[in-house]
Design brief:
Helix content: 25-40%
Largest sheet: 7 strands, parallel
Radius of gyration: 23 Å
Strand order of the largest sheet: 8-7-6-9-10-11-12
Bound molecules: 1,4-dihydronicotinamide adenine dinucleotide
Number of strands: 12
């Protein structure tokens, strides 16, 4: 039995050596270093790591891996910190362009594990060129993001951000706090994937009508009462609330621009818990100034990298666009926190570590369950 297993392993290695010498080299050096450091668990370099990330990862880890905390985001200057690690674990604001990929490859990283769903920040071609596999966490808790979406919409509608501050000053007045019934309103959901569908379920519970838009409509989902697919223009024209749940890619970059805002129902609310680049922020500011947009709830911002996830409270905010955006009393900005629930953190950690374990077991490319292709 033992002999058969060894023969099969050797056969497999020979096939890999013939077809993919770079992968063979990585396997060979992994096997060698495993022999040298049998007691040392393999290392995962965790970039932009916060205490809440590490807590969840340590809990899911059970001593299988060494988690190397790197507080900085990934850059060509910080990539070297991953030397000796089998995988670099990165998040939404770690830029992973060709230069960073090259830097990671040069220190021996063979796997980039995104601890998020979106992968717009990774140059996949560069990864392929360097024989680096990329995995992500395609679904951890669509509920977490959907519930934050609803929180932003309710907060803006009922002016809770203003009421909270006003009441703390002792001004217990109601002027300016009038909202609207959600019941009977039309919600436009752009992107009816996992998160978009959770948002739809929630707003149907309020008695809203849903107009949806998706490049690949889910007709079965639209069979239910009060849900229909429409063109993007029709959605924008009818919706009292527009919520974005599509990934950021070339086709969706600045999906909400001047033209789209002009097509929106006057005074409509816009919510974005997806990716900042879906909205042309300057167009949004113009729309807020003209009143075309009645309120905006933003968990993401196109220039959030370097700002969100950092404590800048002892510095001045140098991003004038963000500063202007946050000066509106009908705008609420949260710093990419829609995912941040205990359940989501646990699922992210478990899926990411399972992917690294698969990689260490020799799976590559399509053999990796959560490979980004
Ligand atoms: P998903 O992949 O389940 O759904 C995306 C939907 O967008 C799909 O139905 C797809 O057909 C549609 N779509 C793709 N390209 C399109 C286009 N050009 N036009 C119209 N529709 C298009 O993704 P999921 O899980 O619902 O996540 C959506 C987005 O939410 C992610 O891509 C990510 O950017 C963002 N997100 C934000 C988080 C946060 O903390 N703020 C956390 C997790 C995800």
């Amino acid at each position: 039995m033992q002999h058969n297993l060894a023969a099969a392993l050797l056969d497999r290695l020979r096939t890999i050596e013939a077809g993919d010498p770079a992968r063979f080299e990585r396997l060979r050096s992994a096997i060698e270093s495993d022999g040298r450091d049998a007691a040392e668990p393999p290392t995962i370099a965790v970039f932009d790591a916060k205490a809440f990330d590490l807590d969840a990862f340590e809990e899911a880890n059970g001593g299988r891996f060494q988690l190397k905390r790197i507080k900085d985001t990934l850059s060509t200057q910080t990539a070297g910190a991953a030397a000796g690690a089998v995988a670099a674990c990165i998040f939404v604001n770690d830029r992973c362009d060709a230069a960073e990929v090259q830097a990671l490859a040069s220190v021996g990283v063979g796997l980039i594990a995104l601890r998020c769903a979106g992968y717009n920040n990774v140059d996949l071609q560069a990864c392929a060129d360097h024989g680096i596999d990329v995995v992500r966490v395609p679904a951890y808790s669509p509920h977490a993001v959907a519930e934050h979406t609803i929180a932003l919409a309710l907060m803006l509608n009922r002016h809770l951000h203003i009421a909270y501050l006003r009441n703390r000053t002792g001004a217990f007045t109601l002027d300016g706090l009038t909202g609207f019934d959600m019941h009977g309103k039309t919600v436009g959901v752009i992107g009816t994937g996992q998160i978009g569908r959770c948002v739809i379920d929630a707003v149907l519970g309020f008695g809203c009508r849903v107009v949806a838009f998706d490049a690949y409509p889910n007709e079965a989902f639209a069979q239910q009462p009060n849900v229909e697919y429409a063109s993007l223009d029709a959605l924008l024209a009818q919706s009292d609330i527009v919520s974005l749940h599509v990934p950021l890619m070339e086709a969706t970059h600045h999906l909400i621009d001047h033209d789209a805002i002009e097509k929106m129902k006057p005074g409509a609310m816009l919510i974005n818990t997806s990716r900042g680049g879906l909205i042309d922020t300057r167009a949004l500011i113009d729309g807020l100034k003209s009143g075309r947009i009645g309120a905006a709830g933003l968990d993401v911002y196109e220039e959030e990298a370097g700002i969100f996830f950092r404590d800048l409270s002892s510095q001045v905010l140098t991003d004038d666009v963000l500063a202007r955006l946050m000066s509106f009393n009908n705008v609420v900005v949260t710093s990419h926190q829609a995912f941040l629930t205990r359940e989501a953190l646990t699922a992210i950690a478990e899926t990411t570590l399972a992917s690294v374990a698969e990689y260490l077991a020799g799976r590559r490319g399509d053999e990796l369950t959560h490979r980004v292709s």
